[in-house]
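Lab channel / #folding
Pinned by the channel admin:
"Please post every new chain as: sequence first, then the structure tokens as a reply. Keep commentary short and put observations after the output so the thread stays searchable."

First post following the new format, from NK:
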Amino acid sequence: MSRPIFGLALGGGGARGFAHIGVLQRLEELGIRPDIITGSSMGALVAAAYIKMGSAAATWDELDKMVRSETFTKLGMHLINVKARGGASFWHQVSAAIQDRIVINLAHSKPGLVRGERIEDVLKLVVTEDTWFDSGTALGIVATDLYSGEDVYFTEGSLLPAVMASAAIPGFLPPVYHKGKTLVDGGVSQQVPIRMAREMGATFVLAVDVGQDIHPITDMDNAMAIMSQCENIRSCHYRDMLNKEADVLLLPEMPGVHWSAYENREAFVDVGIAAFDERRVTFEASWYQRRHPLLSWVKSLI
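Reply from TO:
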């Protein structure tokens, strides 16, 4: 019987994606290194850094240094999480900002609130080489074709445009034009790239979803708020449906925490550890069963 192929699927979620590092730390402690690691949006950046650096600790150092850089500060993440809007998604934030007449002119005249050159400069601090495979782990990154709505998979070639495309949050960052396609955030089509991990050959997938749940809007008295909430509900239901394709799903609990809260990144690592610990027994049993199906069957009989 062939050896099972371990896949780790890391979802998007901005700063909340630092929880992925906690999960990677726990896997290392168990002596498990994924055969395949796929990432969407922030999950793509964490995955790329892990392939490059080789360990959870080194990945933390690399990404922490990125966030502390002057280049990252220029993105203006600290201006996004408007007070009293809690854990609302980016689309809620934009909707609220438009209602406040803060960014309406930019929203109508530009493809993104932040210039693509700025996010490129930030990502260049981490993505310094085209590393898709290292120490037995293959990297996969997902983005979304803005015109067809199809998943676009990256497994080779230039790594920087792949990560940029996967992290191109609609409205906040402009689309990435690559090989005739207009690409946006991978989370639009696959919040957690479980399907990509399967298509790359994974026979067992541990998925980590750091996305936000449906966040209630207090004032549902205008068209913008209603449309925003309906879109949030639809995307959450679609994400939940895709998450069922994982063998084991981790859901780090960060209620009300906004995706731009990078100042809490160290705490998010601990949240990832806690999420793994909560499901550790289930994970170990499932992974053991996949590796030793006959022994697992005998044990079940006993």
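NK: Strands lie at 6-10, 36-40, 133-134, 137-145, 151-154, 176-178, 181-184, 204-208, 248-250.
TO: also worth noting, The longest strand covers residues 137-145.
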